[in-house]
Design brief:
By secondary structure, the protein is mainly beta. The chain has helices at residues 2-23, 128-131, 162-167, 205-210, 305-309, and strands at residues 55-59, 62-77, 80-87, 96-99, 103-110, 120-121, 140-146, 151-156, 171-177, 190-199, 215-218, 229-231, 236-245, 250-254, 261-264, 271-272, 278-280, 284-291, 296-302, 313-318. The chain has a six-stranded mixed beta sheet with strand order 11-10-13-18-15-16.
Length: 319
């Protein structure tokens, strides 16, 4: 009798448990972070795309460029790994060089399985809704533009929210060489390209919205990971700069040098002389030139010193 009683109690308990689970199921979903509605960092996966070199070939004035969007795991500073959204697997994306008057034929393949991406070229005049359109995951888009204006330009992902896509690494530089060149072309000994940008803490979405970066860098990496730029005493140096932002202005400065020529946005028609610091807004650019007068190390910095302190620095070493 006692065994039957215990067995009956067990049956009743089991039935009650099943009923409770049916009407009040366990919530196995992760809690929702409201900030994720506007700021979404790349999903954590164990598979990362390796860099894919862009395919570029020219036929007369037509330039054919194959680009990709992909998620890539990058070391941006000692101890800091960022799961970046990239063009062709690098941050910055590939540096593209074309001539004024060229027609660009862009083939853009989205290898990111999680979201759409796009390409916005600051160097062209085109309808954004048509020519900078989103490309869905695992799809490709074909776009054609002409490059009528010479200069140094930014390109970037234009998919909403744009702030998030640029902050996660989707930007690069396109150089449109002027038809008649620059007045100092035959005097320049060395040319270097620099892209200033900001990295934000992936675990803190508010840092991006409030413009408080974890690192401010040149060419995607902290100062401690940069190799010095090599030059020789007496050489004329040309620096081609884009500020990708997405939030901070660049106060571009070389300690120990005065820029004897500055081409705003890289346009030969917009030339300045005798500049100590050049202000470059997010999405803007410049070419600066100077002559190395003595051997030594010349720090290239953003003179917004909090940004320099966060990594916006690289050395030009002159022998």
């Amino acid at each position: 009798m006692r065994k039957k009683y215990i067995l009956a109690l067990g049956v009743v308990a089991t039935v009650l448990t099943l009923l409770l689970l049916y009407f009040f199921p366990l919530n196995t979903e992760e809690p929702t972070n409201p900030s994720n509605q506007t700021i979404r960092y790349a999903k954590k996966t164990e598979k990362y795309s390796h860099p894919i070199k862009p395919v570029i070939h020219r036929k007369g004035h037509n330039v054919y460029i194959q680009m990709t969007a992909q998620v890539t795991k990058l070391k941006i500073a000692p101890g800091i790994i960022h799961q970046a959204w990239t063009f062709n697997g690098t941050v910055p994306g590939p540096i593209l060089k074309v001539n004024q008057g060229d027609t660009l034929h862009i083939s853009f393949k989205n290898l990111d399985p999680n979201m759409p991406h796009s390409v916005d070229f600051h160097a062209v005049n085109a309808s954004p809704s048509k020519n900078f359109a989103n490309v869905l995951p695992n799809k490709s888009g074909e776009f054609v533009y002409t490059t009528d204006t010479p200069g140094i330009f930014m390109y970037h992902c234009d998919t909403e929210p744009v702030l998030e896509h640029v902050a996660n690494g989707m930007f690069g530089m396109i150089i449109v060489k002027p038809k008649s060149g620059y007045p100092t072309d035959n005097q320049v000994d060395r040319t270097f390209t620099l892209i200033q940008s900001e990295w934000y803490d992936e675990s803190n979405s508010n840092s991006l919205q409030n413009g408080t970066p974890q690192a401010v860098v040149f060419n995607g990496k902290d100062f401690s990971m940069q190799k010095p730029l090599a030059a020789r005493n007496g050489e004329r140096i040309r620096l081609e700069i884009v500020n990708a932002g997405p939030n901070h202005f660049s106060a571009f400065h070389v300690i120990g040098a005065v820029f004897d020529r500055v081409y705003l946005n890289g346009n030969p028609a917009d030339m300045l002389h005798g500049q100590q610091t050049v202000t470059i807004p997010p999405g803007g650019s410049a070419i600066v030139e100077f002559v190395v007068k003595e051997k030594g190390d010349y720090p290239i910095i953003s003179h917004s010193l909090m940004d320099m302190q966060k990594g916006a620095k690289i050395i030009l070493h002159a022998e």
